[in-house]
Automatic annotation (TrEMBL):
Binding annotation for pyridoxal 5'-phosphate: L106, T107, F134, P135, S136, D137, D219, H222, Y244, W275, N303
Pathway named in the protein's UniProt entry: Amino-acid degradation; L-kynurenine degradation; L-alanine and anthranilate from L-kynurenine: step 1/1; Cofactor biosynthesis; NAD(+) biosynthesis; quinolinate from L-kynurenine: step 2/3
Record key words, sorted: Hydrolase, Pyridine nucleotide biosynthesis, Pyridoxal phosphate
Quaternary structure and interacting proteins, as annotated: Homodimer.
Highest taxon in the source lineage: Bacteria
Cited InterPro entries: Kynureninase, PyrdxlP-dep_Trfase, PyrdxlP-dep_Trfase_major, PyrdxlP-dep_Trfase_small
EC category name: hydrolase
Source species: Nonlabens agnitus
Name of this protein: Kynureninase
Gene expressing this chain: kynU
Family of this protein: Belongs to the kynureninase family.
Claim: Cell cycle is one of the keywords in the record: no
Amino acid sequence: MTYNSTKEFAQSLDQADELARFRESFTIPKHVDGTESIYLCGNSLGVQPKKAVEYVADELNDWAQLGVKGHFDKTFPWTRYHEFLTDSMAEVVGAKPHEVVVMNTLTPNLHFMMVSFYKPSGKRRKIVMEADAFPSDTYAVDSQIKWHGGNPAEDIILWQPRPGSSTLMMEDLETIFKNHGDEIALVMIASINYYTGQFFDLKKITELGHSHGAMVGFDCAHGAGNVDLKLHDSGADFAVWCTYKYMNSGPGSIAGCFVHERHADNDQINRFAGWWGHNKEERFLMKPKFDPIYGAEGWQQSNAPILSMAPIRASMELFMEAGFDNLLAKSKQLTNYLEYLIHNIEGDRIKIITPKDPKDRGCQLSLAVKDADKSLFETISDKGVIADWREPDVIRVAPVPLYNSYMDCWNFVQILAAAL
Ligand SMILES: *Cc1c(COP(=O)(O)O)cnc(C)c1O
């Protein structure tokens, strides 16, 4: 499609957008002047689906009215509540339903997956991560290595960008494996790097790791609900993600976890078990011997936090109604359009460090701004833009296809250009 940078063109794109009506299903935070802010921060916290309020209230009411009977006696009984999220979640991350479970929060899930899939032994003890990984992932990996008696300074191998570049190259990961293949126990990287927005080739990485005898897992916090992860086809051993970013399920909401079906009933895999992972038919028989549920559900420990799961239902309903393929198609167009507008800003102060090829990114663009400090970011914030700033010089913006418009992109670029 050929773009132009007029306001009329942005309006015409919104008019032609069949998904535009979904914005109405969300509450967009207001700017101080009472207008809707230009919310481009869905990579950090998605906005609230209006139905979330109702669904949480339903559970509070059921608790008041039914008490303990709410575990069984209602449309969405609490004992099975997570099951009502499985199919839609599996569809969005590209997995089979028994490979997916919604449980815990993200970093604990990452730890629990490493309990199962990081088994250092002999010479094979190293974990490969991407450089500039999200700090929680680095802390988790570092502490797992220590817990196994290893030394993170030796046992973490960083996949680094080449000098002068921000993004990572597959060839360099191949070189790491060529040099250390028999020392690597696990590859644990993000699906999309939180800083650059680079979307990695999960399948290629998995094939590379497996061909050298390593396990492979992904932190899909920035990928889930944003790009086509195809987790099952990637062959990854495990994946984890949160639901408060692109999945709009509220601050600190409950996270997702994927375990590939090849591990579904492998009793040689260690896990930290709990009664919610036990055979459902027998869960309430209170037997002492753990008999895990087939698939990812067998990794659950506790009964589910219903009040945090209710908004996920509201959000996933919208994903299903809009159709994830339609969202992906709009996402590409919306992001390409935003990129076009940014390239049209006069001067050379902005460099987009996110990959140019749409297949190597989701909807996030990371803008490195020459000679900028946080005051630039504060100026655009004062004008009603909600984005985020990463020291030293990067603004991240993410036009989210479920609720952002072409006019959001246009307005943002007007404000940014004026501030520059
Ligand atoms: C957002 C994010 C986190 C946050 O972890 P929580 O456990 O949800 O607080 C961790 N890792 C990555 C890669 C993230 O993007």
